[in-house]
Design brief:
Blueprint lengths: L1 H4 L1 H22 L6 E2 L6 H10 L14 H16 L1 H7 L2 H27 L2 H7 L1 E2 L4 H28 L4 H30 L3 H27 L1 E8 L10 E5 L6 H19 L12 H22 L2 H11 L1 E3 L7 H33 L10 H25 L6
Antiparallel strand pairs: 1-2, 3-4, 3-5
């Protein structure tokens, strides 16, 4: 626990905890004109809860969580890579500030779209366990508050990025997910006397065992998948001797869970449209055969798209050429093509694994009693594991940095 003795690291950790606490309190602040009922766990509820870190189920001021901000940030990153003018802006301080303003505006648009879909459809409100106001003016007040709450949440995430530890958006989602675990465990515990009364304790323990086993498998897969990375040796033109520590790493899950979050956001968007306009779209629910197929395809597709956005071969080739670095066995002009081929191979390994982790929870829905109503999924565990591992790594790095002792 050396980090506790290090003032700078201790301050960053406690600051992060403070921001998390502020966010959690904000999810419990009640919205005006909204009455709560007993919500039922369903596909739409689970989809929306994933990127809000469980905040949606509370239907409070910060119920949208960091979801609009994440979706906006992914869209902005895609625009930076595909639109030349945006790419030039991203290379300049003034341009980055302007892009940041665009991202906040896009966040507000996504927040408006999501809150509008939630508040102007009675069926969706029933699924989420709330009674909506009848007056349009009252609904517009709630929408305004949700947009403000979404912008404030993005601000909290940015504060963690600057003054805390970890990546702000991921930290808020992960600890939001963790905050739902005690309630889910208690939900299973409350079913014990019901099964005992029905003299079906064997069935109860069997289901609990299956659920526990599946979650353990998901946890192990999540830990291994987050740690696995491929290392490609590089060499400097100024050093004729090979140094084993010099390599370019590509993680098995190069984009972490971003492809799943984006795929989930897309299904959520179409789920909202289908409920608002009463369209009978079975493919927006991943518990149907059509929806499951669409979900898998979206994860695969976004895995490739987002990986190649995150690791830009041409940009890395330019950086390598400027610093006199190259992949061993390949010319400086071949950096982009070599990296593209390797990233393609890694993605073909990572995308199926990410899809497996993301869809194991569907098996839980099939084998577990419906009243268990669990919302913790493989993606949730993957997010939590990834964030915890990153926090540990960053805290260790900061501690070593501030406790570095010169040899002479």
């Amino acid at each position: 626990m050396e980090w506790i003795k290090t003032k700078e690291v201790r301050q960053r950790v406690f600051y992060t905890i403070l921001i998390i606490a502020v966010f959690q309190v904000g999810t419990f602040i009640p919205l005006p004109y909204i009455e709560h009922t007993n919500s039922s766990q369903n596909t739409l509820n689970g989809l929306l809860n994933l990127t809000t870190g469980g905040a949606l189920s509370r239907f409070g001021l910060l119920m949208l969580g960091i979801s609009p901000y994440i979706t906006a940030s992914i869209l902005v990153q895609i625009l930076q890579k595909t639109i030349p003018s945006w790419k030039r802006k991203a290379q300049q301080a003034e341009g980055r500030s302007q892009i940041g303003q665009y991202q906040r505006l896009i966040t507000m648009l996504f927040a408006f779209a999501q809150s509008f879909g939630l508040l102007f459809n009675q069926y969706m409100a029933t699924q989420l366990g709330v009674i909506l106001p009848n007056q349009t003016s009252e609904k517009l007040v709630v929408i305004f508050l949700l947009i403000v709450g979404s912008v404030f949440t993005s601000y909290l995430g940015e504060r963690i990025d600057e003054n805390g530890v970890g990546q702000g958006a991921s930290v808020l989602i992960a600890f939001g997910i963790l905050s739902t675990i005690p309630a889910q465990v208690f939900k299973i515990y409350k079913l014990y006397p019901i099964y005992k009364t029905m003299n079906q304790l064997n069935g109860y323990w069997k289901q609990v065992g299956i659920i526990t086993g599946i979650f353990l498998v998901m946890l192990i897969l999540s830990i291994l998948a987050n740690k696995k990375e491929y290392k490609f040796p590089i060499q400097s033109m100024t050093n004729k001797y090979r140094v084993k520590a010099h390599f370019f790493p590509i993680k098995l899950l190069a984009s972490s869970v971003m492809p799943v979050i984006f795929a989930t956001a897309m299904l959520t968007l179409f789920s909202t449209i289908s409920t608002v306009f009463n369209y009978n779209w079975n493919w927006v629910s991943y518990t149907t055969k059509q929806g499951f197929a669409v979900y898998v395809i979206l994860i695969f597709l976004f895995s490739f798209i987002y990986n190649f956005i995150q690791i830009d071969g041409e940009e890395i080739q330019e950086q390598f050429n400027q610093s006199g670095v190259y992949f061993i066995g390949h010319k400086g002009t071949e950096v982009s093509s070599f990296l593209g081929k390797q990233l393609y191979k890694v993605t073909w390994k990572g995308a199926p694994l990410l899809t497996l982790i993301a869809t194991i929870a569907i098996g839980i829905e099939l084998v577990a009693p419906q009243q268990f109503g669990l919302s913790l999924t493989g993606v949730s565990l993957l997010i939590v594991v990834g964030v915890v591992q990153e926090l540990i790594h960053q805290i260790k790095g900061l501690t070593s940095k501030h406790n570095y002792k010169e040899v002479f």
